[in-house]
Amino acid sequence: MPQSDHRGLRLVSLLLVDMLVINLAFVGAHWLRYGAGLGGPVALAIPYAAYAPWGLVLTALLIPIYRLEGLYARRRRQTGAETAYAVATGTIVGVALLTVLLYGLRPEAQSRLMLPYATVLIVVGISITRWLNLLLRRRRLRQGIGVVETLVVGAGETGRRVMGAIMADSDMGYRVLGFLDDDPVKRDQPLGRFPPLGDTVALGRILHSGAPTPEGVVRKVDAVVIALPWQAREHIVQLADMAERAGAQVHIVPDLFQMSLNRVDMATLGGLPLIAVRAPVVSGWTGGVKRTLDVLVSGGLLILFAPLLVVIALLIKLDSSGPVLYVQPRVGTGGRLFRFFKFRSMQIGAHGRLDSLRAVNEASGPLFKMKRDPRVTRVGRWLRRYSLDELPQLWNVLKGDMSMVGPRPPIPDEVERYAPWHRRRLEMAPGLTGLWQVSGRSDLNFDEMVMLDLYYAENWSLGLDLKILLRTVPTVLLGTGAY
Asked: Are strands 325-331 and 337-343 parallel, antiparallel or unpaired?
């Protein structure tokens, strides 16, 4: 089914469900007031038929109000709390308008409690249906239904931001088929899972015949995201026109000298546009909030896990000779070195054997990973499976070397092999867990990890930290992507 048909069907289904919920809410409110007697006894039981027009009028009021709240936007991304807030705000406005109408018309049905009951039922009912719709949509996306096949034009910093954002927010429904770039170096090097598909001249051919995938399947391009530098503005217009004529959605990401839009404020001065650069996302009071969360969570977990830490230390001692803790220099914020603690999961002298194993490295970039690393001890393999070897890092968090959430702390040898764009991940404190850890862990390659780290750094919020911490729990318990 074409994407336009999916979007039209989704809009119609949302409208029909909302209409049904609004009118069922009036049925429920009538039962609460007259059937259950909630609110005290009534002198006269007014039949529901007298209230039915109220539901129809409120439906006519609420649907356009919900539209203004963005509840029917094609690709609006909202959390459950944001959706419930939008529904509540719109419903209250609609009920207020209905109250004004009823005051002027003075209908026979006059129970004052009907509208408050209906308001609560509408908010709860629509919020639940939107949550169920989100779960159903996620399932459809996993099956490939309704996915927007996307081509990114530009593999520079802005293009990498786009690909990182799509990886970090799979609920948006975009899937990157690959990217185009005129730079002879960039157009020959994959970015994580995203393959290069040639230079920008190839756009017309790909729009016409489709984009090949690594599995050998050719997919039609539904959307084109143009993320080229601002100097190429004339070329951007040509590419956008070409994509639009081919029937693809066109999105142009404003480059703004390769700054994230999260770091700029827009204003005017006498009609002239002004761009003001904000301080980094995590600074000032926001940095204080993040640090407070780190201290409270790490301190609490150290106390809670104290018995487990002792048991793990004894198991390590009984399993192999050597110290319980493995202490290693790691690179923190701004390139500063710090002493990194974790439970020892390898045999003594494991680092000296690293060069002999590089030929069988299963990770990309400067990382080294092996699913069956011969240097790992018996207890160490179990510790790594459930990330228990990382519990001593709670002390690093408490000290301030790390944060509960942030990029993975690299070793100095890795940093020496970073590409220039990789180094931007060092601008934020490293974390015990992070966005890439809950998005695939060791199943992601290095470029994908960095793109997710940069997305996190540019979109940080307390809510995002809490979401990642909550997602870490099932990821660790299931051992997803860990080795």
From this structure: antiparallel
**Which amino acid, one-letter code, is at 285?**
W
Mean pLDDT of 343-364: 72
pLDDT at position 447 is 83
Q: Note the maximum CA span of the chain.
A: 89
How far apart CA 246 and CA 281 sit, in angstroms, is 39
What whole-number distance in Å separates Cα of residue 63 and Cα of residue 15?
A: 8
HEC-encoded secondary structure of 302-327? HHHCHHHHHHHHHHHHHHCCCCCEEE
Tell me: pLDDT of 367 over 80. no
- Give the pLDDT band of residue 342 (cuts 50, 70, 90): very high
Radius of gyration of the chain (CA): 28
Place of tokens 């088929």: 177
pTM of the model: 0.64
Query: How far is CA 407 from its chain centroid?
Result: 15
CATH fit for domain 148-277, picks 3.90.1150.10, 3.40.50.720, 3.40.50.410, 3.40.50.300: 3.40.50.720
Nearest partner of 120 among 25, 39, 30, judged by Cα: 25
